[in-house]
Design brief:
4 copies of one chain form a homotetramer. By secondary structure, chain A is of the alpha/beta class. The first copy, chain A, folds into 2 domains: about 170 residues, FAD/NAD(P)-binding domain (3-Layer(bba) Sandwich); about 150 residues, D-Amino Acid Oxidase, Chain A, domain 2 (2-Layer Sandwich). Chain A has 11 helices and 19 strands. In chain A, the strands form 3 sheets. In chain A, strands 4, 5, 6, 12, 13, 14, 15, 16 and 17 form a 9-stranded mixed β-sheet that branches. In chain A, strands 7-3-2-11-19-18 form a 6-stranded mixed β-sheet. In chain A, a hairpin with a 2-residue loop joins strand 8 and strand 9. In chain A, helix 1 packs parallel to helix 11. The longest helix of chain A has 17 residues. Chain A is globular and about 65 Å long. Chains in contact: A-B, A-C, A-D, B-C, B-D, C-D. At the A-D interface, helix 10 and strand 17 of A face helix 10 and strand 17 of D. Chains A, B, C, D: It is an enzyme of class 1 (oxidoreductase). Chains A, B, C, D: It holds the Pfam family DAO. Chains A, B, C, D: One of its GO terms (molecular function) is glycine oxidase activity. Chains A, B, C, D: This is glycine oxidase.
């Protein structure tokens, strides 16, 4: 008899890590399979913003998911540090979503009103107030939403923190193991076929980011997701101090420890190509200079790109396969994978356990957009 | 109407590069698809030995293939340098296949006799003669086959040289494009389905190394190949000069320009895991010290691993798919991919053109070992 | 008039960083000059052990300095995290100084007795107890000193943490600025001459590690220090779990977060050459295998070396120049620079301020070994 | 008695390498000392242009030196390849010095006339002719000097090629050895004092680039040189093909093998700081886009900087020390170190041997600008 795991998680990024971590906390014997190296795709490329309010306007199911997830980070940081020794570098210094023209100003003030009705903190700051708070920011900024609760983490550390904490709780992780097919019969999943042989479980969770679609296409489920390249670069400066994350249309500045600032991110849909282009850097650099002119004096560090999974309606897929019981899916988090990882880990663990979820997952059902089901 | 290529090559390693280069020289409009980066797998990890005589004993079809391929390098080096500016660093200083005990001595003398009958140069050198030629070699070496014609190249440069020369002749290369399926109907191939959409051609060549098997499994062809990890490391020394490549059972030393010596390679079957282990380095290091004691003074550079495709009978697969016309296969070169790339490029181009090949390819037929054909 | 700093620190390693941090906390306007990149020499190469008891036998002035410094880490970790966001990864899981033969056993039991008399915790564990605590350790270990209070930190993080916290408190850091000479007259220092011009202060602190001697030789002071190369390597394993730092004669294993283990360190005196040799890795690897046989399954990561400043009597130099007032020296910490950095920062700041130090610095006077004073 | 070398070369860059190589060819027993790693400063950062005509207008002693040196490369490439196996990647595809406005056009036509009088090939090409030759170049280019003989090499390969060829001829190279002082007496040099002890020779050649000045200041010679940072970056494109090196005011594009293009270089005087700034990349990127708009589609590779030695009058220093016999100096080559290395190696070897040089070295005397000689 082969060993049967309580669950097999496919994907060694932040979503797979969060799910494995939650399942292990509940006592399950879990196997996590990653086709290359852990945290080597979108999770390792992310800037780590927790922009529940900056990225969403304050209505809809994604906003509810995001604010709930954001609230979980403080406790999570402690748990991960304790279990794995890894500091996820949670910073709670808020975010400035800055306006560069009157139209944005008008729009952001409207969003503030909505978010306040939802019970969130959101304030309007004038350009002068913005520069009093962050003197390095440009005169071109005419005002900003100040979002006190939108923080940030170090994305790779969070991913490794989930994974290492999962290992500490007995999860087995295998890198360079690629799942080829699922073992499916009688409407149920019973395992996976990989380049290292077969592994068995009645619960298989696909958390393969932009690569999930291909894997699931073999089950008759055509997810409406597509890859979106995002290019970033980082600089270091010890004299140009930025404290708050700055978010604008088309460019954000995320200050990290040691004077590092991550500048991101371009949005290039429908490609798996991880190459950083001159165009990408050039556009980001010009926009960063508009937000923070003295960034020109900072030291160049490096550039990179990640491939993020976007969906047709912009909502992630979180749920069970419409045909095969025990086959769960968690993908399509686009730019919010880091932010949404704690809640995703929790609700998927609930689904696997057959427990009611703390949140209505109807809007995230995997068959909501199904075009083709054969 | 979509554009139809004369041929599509799947795989951006040395074999795919050699095929694309040969097809382009003959005037074809070729597309080459690589699922990650060019030369990023076994081709970029190889030490570059051209051990036609060192690796094979002098009989059989593989030896014929190898000696024919080895003879092509001098002209090839010139062509690639001229077309692409890339120096493949062909070194023709011979090889010493060293014996460390009487049994090996006996065996190697037997092989010398066989190889001479095949018309190859092969001489026996005593331990003293070996050390006169290469003073850094150990007293433990009791003798060696001296193979004047077994040279070496820089493997990544050869791979990039093929590819760049192919580009110069009109080949289109796309990285980060993964072939999911072939378009097959009426016993013919008509194109490929990828993560970047469909591409069309009536000639598709699979040169995906250890990853070929999975791709072909969808066509009903179960190749009897498996991955074999090989670990290597490199050192640099300007005072310990080694000129000739040294080949022994379990360890080889390949002297490169700038005092670099590549020490290779372990043989770990049936894994795609590219991790270098402490064990791998430890074993290689002990063996290298036995061959060349003063290597301890050399500077450590780095360690790496490659995943090479081996076959059940040790022969590569070179030929057309047994069911689908136009679908060609070139894989299973194991440790001889660099050595065999020129002849592979030529014979596959012959097959695609429907020309007779200069060599009998029967022993390399893809259906010779077929166990399962559904 | 040129700007006059309250103090100029020469050296951007952990000692320079600790001094700058302490001076800044006391309100001084400090300039720190580093001839290359920060944390690029011994401080960036260290394994980060806080071996107050493991490295010293429990008597003498160095032991007093070390235990005092070790006690400062908990508070320091909090301060640095708060000021700079940097986690120095302080781990307080103790150390096992393992015996591999009877002589060591005897010796270590003697040391335990001495250390207990000094009021330190130190226990003898049998080989079985050691393996119950750390099942991956070898049967060859016949017993161990268990030192509960000897912890460890991440050395680069500590160095950058000091430096970044110093910057947050107003310290100006300049990289790539090499001090050529001191400005000296009438028995006092008044500044430094560098490749970027002159900088002025009546307090100059030399914390240049192994490079301090050369700089000070121009002042008539011939420190009896010499460089000692130490080579290390790191591996990663998620299945072979080690929790406690293991210290043996000639080799230590320092478990870091994420399954990383640092294996160190060779001792090669009187060279500034940072090259890692095959010999160094080979020796460490054999010793590591003796301590923890399953380390062979771990993944190889990388190797590196640092150049540490040793002194003739093994004690660091901490004090003022015998001729020139205001010129302070803090070097010669050999393998204990990380451990001794907090106390060094404090006492040097005391000396600069002219305050009595919390510890008798007589044994560390810079002229104690002076051979030549012209 | 200590070993006495025929010559000691201080500096492991392209100039030191060329000198050691020439001295060794003439039979001398040479020691080369490098304070860090070989080719780690300006020589490893250079784009490798041989712009004898592009960089100089056609008159004066520097032009004579440069054209003579340029003529030496073809033979040198063969020698180095033969001796060391290293391909210096000499490309003789000419250079386009492009004009972007009428003033430049006027100026360049004047230079063409001068250069032709000197017997050099130089042609004017209209903007259309330029784009016919290189279709990727911009419409903004109104014309260009076409300099057929200005080629390029791979700078690191040239440097390592000199050094490796020198080693093959018996030169001893020591890295991480820093010269502190010269041993001087009775108007003669007799050796050097270093961090690894003393080395003896009656001929010492200082080829330390921007670091030479400091070393020589201790001999009473104040060279009027200063460091100039140059920042560069590289991109790779297989679809945007550029063949000829493009040189403009403030930016050049140097096409290398494998589709790589080096974009250089900023000019930031009087700093040893090797940090690449956002400003540097931003300026180069904008200028590169003006020359070759489709460069935006190329893949970003990396950015780096080098510190080049400039002199007050723009001419290198090539000659003997005005006071100390046997102490030779070769520095101040600014942006032309690669180009001038062959002739520098030759004439310095002539000086050391006491032979007449093939060129009048009066304009390059080391005491021509001496301001202070004590």
């Amino acid at each position: 008899m082969s060993y049967v795991y309580d669950a097999i998680v496919v994907g060694g990024g932040v979503i797979g890590g969060a799910i494995a971590y939650n399942l292990a906390k509940r006592g399950g014997k879990v196997l996590l399979l990653e086709k290359e190296r852990l945290a080597s795709k979108a999770s390792g490329a992310a800037a780590g913003m927790l922009g529940a309010q900056a990225e969403m306007d304050g209505e809809g199911s994604l906003f509810q998911l995001a604010r709930k997830s954001r609230a979980m980070f403080t406790q999570l940081a402690g748990e991960i540090k304790e279990t794995s020794g890894i500091d996820i570098e949670l910073i709670n210094k808020g975010m400035l979503k800055v306006a560069l023209n009157e139209q944005q100003q008008h729009e952001y003030k409207r969003v503030i009103a909505i978010q306040r009705q939802s019970g969130e903190q959101a304030d309007w700051m004038t350009g002068e107030e913005v520069r009093r708070k962050e003197p390095v920011l440009s005169d071109a900024i005419t005002g900003a939403m100040h979002l006190e609760k939108d923080g940030q983490v170090e994305a790779t550390q969070l991913t490794l923190g989930f994974l290492k904490s999962a290992v500490a709780r007995g999860v087995v992780i295998k890198e360079f193991v690629e799942v080829y097919y699922f073992q499916l019969s009688k409407g149920k999943v019973s395992g996976v076929v990989t380049n290292e042989g077969n592994f068995y479980s009645e619960n298989v969770i696909v958390a393969g980011g932009a690569w999930s679609k291909k894997l699931l296409s073999k089950t008759g489920l055509q997810l409406d997701t597509y890859p979106v390249k995002g290019e970033c670069f980082s600089v270091v400066s010890h004299s140009q101090i930025l404290t708050t994350t700055v978010f604008s249309h088309g460019c954000y500045l995320v200050p990290k420890k040691w004077g590092r600032i991550i500048v991101g991110a371009t949005v290039k849909p429908r490609t798996f190509c991880k190459k950083v282009t001159v165009e990408g850097i050039s556009i980001l650099m010009e926009q960063a200079k508009k937000l923070m002119p003295s960034i020109v004096e900072a030291e160049w560090e490096r550039a990179w790109a990640g491939i993020r999974p976007q969906t047709a309606d912009g909502l992630p897929y979180l749920g069970e396969h419409p045909i095969y019981k025990g086959l769960f899916i968690a993908t399509g988090h686009f730019r919010n994978g880091i932010l949404l990882s704690p809640i995703t880990g929790e609700v998927i663990a609930d689904l696997v356990e057959g427990k009611p979820t703390s949140l209505n997952l109807e809007p995230f059902r995997v068959d909501r957009l199904v075009r083709q089901l054969t």
